[in-house]
């Protein structure tokens, strides 16, 4: 897959970022503040102390590397379009799924493709956002 210049990384990609080949990612990668929120919740979502430490370490590395794109007015407006597309497809746009849709709205508002290892999560918005599949299994 040829590398694109710019793109937004879904949380699924950020979770395995260090194991991916660089040519599977955009040259200029960004993340949404929503991804940072998901990563910030991660350490609190496990009772396993070793896993909690791994998740905290990942969060700190991501915070060092990325300046997340905030969820502002443009993303909020784009979310309306994303929400409408999902509802038109007869699917739910609430709960945990809302995080994925806010990430897709960030890509739409920024005018960049969305890189994800969970392509099925975004089938309903493919007409609005370019979805770039990233191999779910790390290649390194």
Features:
140 residues; alpha/beta; 4 strands
Brief rundown of the structure:
This protein is α/β, with parallel strands linked by helices and 140 residues long. The chain has helices at 11-15, 33-41, 49-65, 73-88, 97-110, and strands at residues 6-9, 28-30, 114-116, 131-133. It contains 5 helices and 4 strands; from the N terminus they run βαβααααββ.
What's the SSE blueprint?
Elements: E1 6-9, H1 11-15, E2 28-30, H2 33-41, H3 49-65, H4 73-88, H5 97-110, E3 114-116, E4 131-133
Parallel strand pairs: 1-2, 1-3, 3-4
Notes on the protein architecture:
The chain is of the alpha/beta class. The chain is built from five helices and four strands. It has a four-stranded parallel beta sheet with strand order 2-1-3-4. α2 (33-41) packs antiparallel against α5 and α4 (73-88) packs across α5.
Mean pLDDT score: 90
Structure class: alpha/beta
Series of H and E elements: EHEHHHHEE
Task: Note the total helix count.
Answer: 5
Helix content: 40-55%
Task: Enumerate the spans where pLDDT stays under 50 for 5 or more consecutive residues.
Answer: none
The quaternary structure here is single chain
- Please give the radius of gyration in angstroms: 15 Å
**How many strands, what sense, and barrel or not for the largest sheet?**
4 strands, parallel
The strands making up the biggest β-sheet line up spatially as 2-1-3-4
């Amino acid at each position: 897959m040829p590398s694109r210049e710019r793109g937004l990384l879904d949380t699924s990609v950020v979770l395995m970022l260090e194991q991916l080949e660089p040519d599977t990612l955009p040259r200029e990668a960004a993340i949404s503040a929503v991804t940072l929120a998901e990563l910030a919740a991660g350490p609190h979502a496990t009772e396993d102390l070793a896993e909690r430490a791994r998740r905290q370490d990942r969060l700190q590395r991501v915070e060092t590397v990325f300046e997340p794109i905030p969820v502002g007015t443009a993303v909020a407006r784009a979310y309306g379009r994303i929400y409408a597309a999902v509802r038109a497809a007869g699917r739910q746009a609430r709960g945990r799924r809302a995080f994925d849709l806010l990430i897709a709205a960030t890509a739409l508002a920024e005018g960049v493709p969305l890189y994800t290892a969970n392509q099925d999560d975004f089938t309903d918005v493919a007409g609005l956002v370019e979805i770039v599949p990233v191999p779910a299994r790390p290649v390194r």
